[in-house]
Amino acid sequence: MLEIKNLHAVIDGNEVLKGLNLKVNAGEIHAIMGPNGSGKSSLASVLAGREEFEVTDGDVTYKGQDLLDMDPEIRARDGVFMAFQYPVEIPGVSNISFLKTAVNEVREHQKLEPLSARDFLKRTREMQELVQFDSALANRSLNEGFSGGEKKRNEIFQMAMLDPTLAILDETDSGLDIDALRIVADGVNKLHSKDKAFIIITHYQRLLDYIVPDFVHVLNDGQIVRSGDKNLALELEEKGYDWLKKEPVTS
Amino acid sequence: MLAQIDVEFREQILNDYQGVSECQVCDKPDYLVPIREVAFSFFQESGFPTLKNEDWKYTPVKRYLNEPFEVDQEDTNTIAPADAPYFGKQLPGYKIVMINGRFDPEQSELPDSSQCTIAPIIDVLREPTVKERLSKSRNYGANPFLAMNTALFTKGIYIHIPKNVKIDHPIHLVHYAGGEQKQFNITKNIFVVEEGGEAEIIESYYHSGHAPVSFRNSATEILVEPNATLHHIKLQKAHSNLRMVEHTEVEQKQDSLYNNYTFTLPGMNFVRNNLNLDINGSNIESHMYGLYLTNENQLVDNHTLVNHREPDCESNQLYKGILTDRSRAVFNGKVYVHSIAQKTNAFQQNNNILFSDDAAIYSKPQLEIFADDVKCSHGSTIGQLDDEALFYLRARGLSKADAQSMLVNAFAFDVTEKLVDEEIKAMLNEEIDKVMTGVIS
Fold this sequence. Notes:
The complex is a heterodimer.
Chain A: E1 2-11, E2 14-24, E3 29-33, H1 40-48, E4 54-62, E5 65-66, H2 72-77, E6 80-83, E7 90-94, H3 95-109, H4 117-130, H5 135-138, E8 141-142, H6 148-162, E9 166-170, H7 178-191, E10 197-201, E11 215-220, E12 223-228, H8 230-239, H9 242-246
Parallel strand pairs in A: 3-10, 3-11, 6-9, 9-10
Antiparallel strand pairs in A: 1-2, 1-4, 4-5, 7-8, 11-12
Helix pairs in contact in A: 6-7
Chain B: H1 7-22, H2 32-46, H3 62-65, E1 70-71, E2 94-99, E3 102-103, E4 117-120, H4 128-134, H5 144-152, E5 157-161, E6 171-177, E7 183-193, E8 198-207, E9 214-224, E10 229-236, E11 242-252, E12 257-264, E13 270-279, E14 285-294, E15 299-308, E16 314-323, E17 328-337, E18 345-354, E19 360-369, E20 375-383, H6 387-394, H7 400-416, H8 422-440
Parallel strand pairs in B: 1-7, 2-6, 5-7, 6-8, 7-9, 8-10, 9-11, 10-12, 11-13, 12-14, 13-15, 14-16, 15-17, 16-18, 17-19, 18-20
Antiparallel strand pairs in B: 2-3, 4-5
Helix pairs in contact in B: 2-5, 6-7, 7-8
C-alpha cells in the first residue's frame, strides 16, 4: 500500500529525514518509535503533505501512485489520514459542519454519493459512540477550548468518520491519561481491518499495550535503525534508546 | 478655512447657513440659535478635517469632497424607487423612508402612533428631549463634520419610544441618496428610548449608481434611559457613488443596554463612522460590534470613543476587518475609565486579515484608565489566514479555496454571531460568503 524509498527531507535548511525506507502493506499496524528529534513527526508531516518540508531525494508510492506529487487534500480524499500531534483550534468553524464537508469531499473523490443529512447524522452517532466522543463537543467550534485529551479524541472521531485506508497517528498518545489512551486505542482496534493500515508514531511503549503492532521500527537521526516485532518495543521500554544510538545500522 | 475645497461648494455652504439662519418659515427656537452660531463659526474656522487633525490622520477626506456639490437642495419631488434593491430589503419590520436625509412619510410603513413618535426633526425642535440632546456640548475639534451638521441641519428623523414600550418589530430606516446634481446632504437624527422601553433600529442605504455622487453627513444623537434597551444595526452597503460620514453619540443611563452593530461591505467608496458612548449611570452594558469587509479602493474608517463615567458598567468592543484589493481601513478605539468608575469591565479588540499586498489597515486601540479596580483589556492583530489551520482543513480533504473561505467566514462569524436578529445574521453570512468566494477563487 505504502512504499517509502530512500526518503530525504529538509526543513529550514536542516535535513530531518536521511534516507528512510519503509514498506507498509494493507492490514498491517506499524509502530514508529524513537527519541525526540529523531524525525518521527517529520515523517508524518511529509506523508500528510506539509509544504514546509522539502523532499530532496527518494520517493513515496501510495496505492501505486506518487504520493509526493499529490496536494494534501488529494491525499486525504484518497484515504490518507493524519491524526495531528497538536490539533489546531479553529474558532467559528463548527466541528460537525466541517466534518460533513470533509466527508463529502472524500466521498465525491471516491465517486460515492454525498451522505444525506440523515445518514450523516446516523454515522456521526455511531462513530461518536465508537470512540466515546461527547456529542456536545462535536457540535462546538473545531477544538476550541477542548482539553488535550478531547482534541486527541476528536482526531480519532474524525478518523472514524473519514474511514481512511492509511492512518498515521502522530503521537496521539502523548498527553493522554490512561482512560483516554484506552479509548483512543479501542477506536483504532475497532477501525482496523484487513484493508487498512496504520502507522502509529509514539514516543512511549504504553500505547502498544493496547494496540498490538505487527512491526516496530526505531527511528534515529532521520533513518530507521532497527525493525522488529512488538518485543522490540518492550526492549526499548527497558533499555531506552541510547543503546541503539551507539550501535551501527544493522538492518 | 474652507479654502481646501471647491469654490462653488464653499459658497454653497455659506449660502446654506444664511438660508438656515434667515429662513422665515422655519422654526428657530431660542436655544438653538447660539448652538448653530457656535457650530458654524467653528466650522468656518476649521473647515473639513485635514490629515493634520489627529482624528483624521489616515483619512484624506478632501479627495471625497472635491466636487461641486449642491448642499441640501430641495428635492421634494424625488421619490424613492419602490423596487430599489437596498441591502436588507427582505427584512421584516416597520420602514422609515429617508430621501437625501428628508423623511418621506408617504412611502414609509410606520408603527402605530400609540407605540412611538416618529417625526421630522425640524418639527420637534421644541420637544424637551430634542432640546436636551441638541444642547449637549460636543467635541467639534475632533469632528468638524458634526459642527457643520449642527450648524446646517434641517432634515432628519426623530424617533421616540415611550416609557415601558417595547416596539413589536424592528424599525428599519432606509436612507436613499442621489439626485440630478451631485448632492451633499446633512441629516440629524435623534432616537430616545425612555425608561424600560425597547427597540431595534436597523439602518440601510441606497444609491442607484445612475445618479451622480452623493455625500452624506449624518449625525445621530441617542439617549437610552434607565433600564431601556436599544439594538442598533447598520448595514452599510450601497453603490460606490455614495460617500458618508456617520456620527453617532449615545448617552446611556443606569441599567440600560445599547448594542451597536456596524457592518460595512463592499460598495461605498468612503465610509467614516464615529461612535461615541457616554456611560452615564451604573450597571450599564454596551456592546459595539463592527465588521468591515472591503474591496477595490474603498476606505472604511471606524472611530469609537467610550467614556466610563460611573461604576459597575461593562463595555465591549469587537471590530474585525477583512481587506482585499487596494482597500484601506482605519480602526481607532478609545476607552476612558474615569476615576470614579470602579469595577468597570471594558474590553476592546480589533482583528484584521489582509487579503492583498496592496490593502492597508491602521489600527489603534487605546485605553486610558484613571480608576484602580477595573478589568480592562485591549488588543489589535493584523495578519493573514493561519497557515496551520489551512493545512489542518486541507489534510481533511477540503480544497484550498474551501478551506480559506471557511476560515474567513469563521473570522467574520465571530461578529455576526453576536446578532440577536437571526434573519440579519443569515443575510450577512450569505453576503460575506458571496464576496469571499469571488475573492478566493
